Amino acid sequence: RIIIAPMFPQYASATTGAVFERSFTYAAKKLNVPCLTALSPFYDNEDYLDAWQAVAEEKLAAFKPDHVLLSYHGLPERHIRNCDPSGSHCLAKDNCCDTPNEANKNCYRRHCMVTSHALIPRLGLEEGNYSLTFQSRLGRDPWLTPATDQTVVELAKKGVKRLAVLSPAFTADCLETLEEIGMQAKESFLEHGGEAFELI
Asked: How many CB atoms lie within 10 A of CB 36?
């Protein structure tokens, strides 16, 4: 028996979907295919949320940020629309993710929002002192917004001095986030008036 466990809590065809596709394509080439079980997205799983709380709570208490960003890996908007079986719900309105339904069942943006709304009370974050953003934009297509890199600069210019950033789209540190958030975003924040930056 093989259990396929993608390391991405929120579903996206470019990540979890690609892992499933590659795994099943490989298995299909075998004469004796073992039982394959694929884990479903775990963006709202209590153990996952408990783990994030355990990692972040102590560090936030020690750092004492003015503002907390929950920064998720970005996706082109067309990926979100393509996962909507109705073809008319996702990104049609600002509040399209507020209520679960068949159209947004596999919506990456909705999964990110659900994760954030579960972490906010667990971490004691107060309204106005946190934001949800998306990092890593490439190419010319419109990507999910608000963008982390732009938000970091805006917050610094508005007077935020101590900024903490969580990346709950990952179960482990990856080079892209360490470089893009831990180095580039930190540098931008400090250049525009921020005083302290913490990647959690």
From this structure: 14
| Preceding peptide of 146 cis, ω within 30° | yes
Q: Enter the tokens of residue 54.
A: 């355990």
Query: What is the C-alpha separation between 153 and 57, in angstroms, rounded?
Result: 25
| Token pair 């953003």 in the structure block, residue | 133
Instruction: Read off the pLDDT of residues 111-134 as tens digits, 9 standing for 90 and up.
Output: 999 999 999 999 999 999 999 999
Helices and strands per DSSP (H, E), number in the chain:
7, 6
CB neighbours (10 Å) of residue 189? Answer: 25
What tokens does 194 get?
């921020």
Q: What confidence tens digit (pLDDT) does each residue in 21-44 have? A: 999 999 999 999 889 999 999 999
Bridge partner list, 36 = 2
SS3 (DSSP) at 196: strand
Contacts of the segment 140-147: beta carbons below 8 A, 24+ positions apart: 141/76, 141/77, 141/78, 142/76, 142/77, 143/74, 143/75, 143/76, 143/77, 144/74, 144/75, 144/76, 144/77, 144/80, 144/109, 147/74
Q: Which tokens sit at 93?
A: 């309105």
Rounded CA-CA distance 184/161 in Å is 17
pLDDT tens digits, 57-93: 999 999 999 999 999 999 999 999 999 999 999 999 9
**Separation between Cα atoms, residue 15 and residue 33, nearest integer Å:** 23
